[in-house]
Amino acid sequence: MSTRSGIPQITLKALKWEPHLPPVEMEDATPRQLAAMKVTPSAKKVSPYVRTLAHDPDSYVARTELFNAIMYVKEGLPREDREMGALVASIANGCRYCANVHARQHAKLSGSSAMVSALYAARPDALSDRESAILAFSKALTTTPPSADAEHVETLRQAGLDTKEIIDLIHAVAIFGWANRLMHPLGHST
Amino acid sequence: MTQKLDAMDRAAGLSADSPLRSFRAFRPEFVEGSEACRLAVLTPEDDLGLSQDLRAAIARRVALGANNSTFLAEYPMPENPDFSDLATGKPVTDPALAALASHADMIAATPAKASAAHLAALQSAGYSVPQIIALSELLAYVCFQMRVAHGLRLLEGTL
């Protein structure tokens, strides 16, 4: 895909996340914690993030199942648009690690780094109408208190999103209102 | 839709016959998953030493940030009067609860400002690592629910 408005296309390198608090060590894990950590597909090596949250296994399991449904469930809003909602929320909430992960996911799913490059270059003028509508709505839903209004929804509809897809977008942005408030406060990324 | 209103419907102020409830029903994973999360943070089987009353109080403090009385009505006052100030957003005198209150206020409104020092403050106030994780999940859950409820209410108005 060609560059838009001459914005240099960026390629983001993966970051590493380290917890501020000691994570659960596998040899000390309770049966409940061990069962909880199995919810994650990458069972080979359990990440420090998962082991940190496994201190409270019940909320870990419930949130992870909901998170996976919101981000990966079939049909409805295309996955790349969910990733954009996640990215916009993560930038607004100051979660650099989450922003990096979901920017890279978006680029992978869409086959282009154009949207991510425009966001990171603070060039919203280079976004498509659909992307602009998703950006404005996601940002407004992320403020405290949430400030998304009927005009934002109308703009999403004009950009082609139907009611079911808007429900998917609401959940993608909202679940990052949760995830960002774990990942950023509980650790740092390098 | 004849199904009973759930906590998210009520937080969004949806009525039993709201057409938006049929749209919500297309995503049973979201409906059931949100409810499972609510129970896991507010009334867990293993409370890790954080009572349901304390959880209710801190959740209500975060819920105040929605600036929405319909949403807040889903967060009842705790029974223990010692948690009243915590639940009503007032300054708190008890040192351990005060540490919790200031952490909750920061996480809800300005999560970008969070740092390791904030967690150290909670540890100095006597909270264990599992308790800090459980509290983090609880605070952030309310922030999630606030945004879904806002979005659903808004969307309903455009149908």
Task: Describe the fold and architecture.
The complex is a heterodimer of chains A (190) and B (159). Chain A is mainly alpha-helical and 190 residues long. Chain A is built from 9 helices and 2 strands, in the order βαααααααααβ. The longest helix of chain A is centred in the last third of the chain and has 24 residues, at 163-186. The radius of gyration of chain A is 17 Å and the shape is globular. The two termini of chain A are 30 Å apart. The mean pLDDT of chain A is 94. Chain B is mainly alpha-helical and 159 residues long. Chain B has a single domain (7-156), classed as AhpD-like (Up-down Bundle), CATH 1.20.1290.10. Chain B has helices at 7-12, 20-24, 28-42, 52-63, 69-72, 84-87, 95-109, 116-124, 129-156. The interface between A and B is large, with 56 and 58 residues.
Structure at a glance:
The complex is a heterodimer of chains A (190) and B (159). By secondary structure, chain A is mainly alpha-helical.
